[in-house]
Amino acid sequence: MTKLSFLNGIVLAFETIRTHKLRAFLTVLGVIIGTGTIIGVSAILTGFDESVAGVLRSFGPNSIIVFKFPVGPRTSRLTPEERTRKNLTYQNAAEIRERCKSVEDVSTMLFPNGGPINVHYKGNDMYDVNLFGVEEAYARGGQVDLHLGRFFTDEESRRKLPVAVIGQDLEKGLYANVDPIGKPITVDGHEFQVIGTMLRPAASFFGDTDQRVLLPYGTMQKMYPNARENAIVVTARSGMLPQALDEVRTVLRIDRRVRYDKPDNFALSTAEQMVSDFRQITAVTFLVMVVLSSIGLLVGGIGVMNIMLVSVTERTYEIGIRKALGARRADILIQFLIEAASLTGLGGLVGIAFGWLISLIARLVWESLPASVPMWAAATGIVMSVSVGLFFGIWPANKAARLDPVVALRYE
Fold it and tell me: Beta 184-187 vs 117-121: how paired, if at all?
């Protein structure tokens, strides 16, 4: 087929689509829905991936999170053995600080027992805050961006002083138009003095709100004497993360008396490991959504095949004339394939617009979700829609190409 005949085939295909606009739209409606759903899901998952990856990477490239089981996306898939592991202790953190030469800093975090924590100041209340006790090293690890005041010291922790550093939303919610520094705050029935406030982090495990209340580690122990749930944030020296991981693992295995032939009874998680675990989960989710969305493409493909068969029947006389004037079987075959591919290709373009609209609505509903249509998803949508047209157009096109010109010319 020459370039001119190929271009003529495209013009003829679009002329046929223009003549039967409503029929063409209804034919490719399944393609539009299928492609739009794939594009929309890709946009939402891409935004979700960026958001969660930003949260996980906020711990820093040299940070190691030590906990009794893996933190991050794998937490929902814990084994019975992981759920029954004994807690990490403050002594574990002290051993890491003392014996690991590749470690620059260590901070222990203590979590309270019980249910939601509420805070109060002069008639203002806020509920379900994020309370934990930390050391001074926590601020050095990049987890704290101070707004007002200062962070507490290890000396204040040793003396168990009633001081607190609060998040930005607590500052605005409890102390509107008031300087919070030096003011009291009641946390779960205990009164503390606010010595500092923090800016909202760019990415946080706690979502869009910043309702953190940080207490000195020793103060937290005094407030919750039965609290035993510790996590340890380890900061490796620059460029020494692999060595730090090995050293921390060795120290903890010795400290927790793990036999040489037994697996670790604790977990070391880095930002990149957590991102990798999360992307394994989203990859499966995306695959499932693509399979479900492909049902729409299948329905659209069957519709295209049916309408092309109708088109072949309607244009039998035209096909007979073309063959009588010298058109080859390949010319007729390619003409109808071009028409089918053009039909579904237009459906794919409309589907991309539909998917972009889904991503726009998602951004408006969830402002923290940076949903955007990735270029690879748009390209895949076009390729898939055109492929559907080519695949399901083969039978009608082949039927048209094999028509006998004498029989076709006699067709009424």
Answer: antiparallel
